[in-house]
Design brief:
This protein is mainly α. The protein is about 80% helix and about 0% strand. It is flat, with a radius of gyration of 26 Å. The protein starts with a helix and ends with a helix.
């Protein structure tokens, strides 16, 4: 009888751990989906074009202010529509890029990496697999870990191998000022 209780207890614990791991994988996959979606919306180097777009939108307004207000029906002119369309695009693209910086980089990435390191200790393959699923390339994996968790005793296993050695050398050169 005791033996059956022991077998039942062991199977129950294994089943419970499997459910917990399934739950964690679902949470990780949800984070991955959010990060990937926001990263896809990001427009690289938009900040370089943002100022020129801003001036393009607002330079005609200076000329309009000189016009007689009674001679112009606001909202009926094609130029009003074009101006509104450009302004909406500028605001939308700017807020998308800002969302990547504030929401993904400062908050979600830290939670994502800390979850991976906590729930997949000594399983570098699993951690890298999930990071790649989130849309990060090979060269970005260790940079992401540096940015979020850093190199410490909990993340040392992620820096093993050839790519880890190269990354550490790159960091040392960067810190020494070369």
């Amino acid at each position: 009888m005791r033996r059956l209780q022991h077998v039942y207890t062991v199977r129950f614990k294994w089943s419970e751990n499997a459910q917990i791991m399934r739950f964690l994988r679902v949470r990780i996959l949800i984070l991955i989906k959010k990060i990937k979606k926001i990263k896809k919306m990001h427009i690289k180097d938009f900040h370089k074009n943002e100022e020129s777009l801003y001036h393009e939108i607002f330079s005609p307004i200076k000329h309009q202010s000189e016009m007689d207000a009674s001679a112009k029906d606001i909202g009926n002119d094609i130029k009003d529509y074009e101006w509104t369309h450009k302004w909406n695009n500028l605001v939308t693209f700017s807020s998308r890029n800002q969302m990547l910086d504030t929401y993904v980089i400062r908050i979600m990435e830290k939670r994502f990496i800390s979850m991976l390191v906590k729930y997949f200790p000594d399983q570098a393959g699993e951690v890298v697999k999930y990071i790649r699923k989130a849309g990060y390339g090979d060269g970005e994996v260790l940079d992401l870990i540096d940015r979020t968790a850093g190199y410490n005793s909990n993340t040392a296993y992620l820096y093993q191998g050839k790519s880890g050695e190269e990354h550490r050398k790159k960091l040392q050169r960067k810190q020494s000022g070369e």
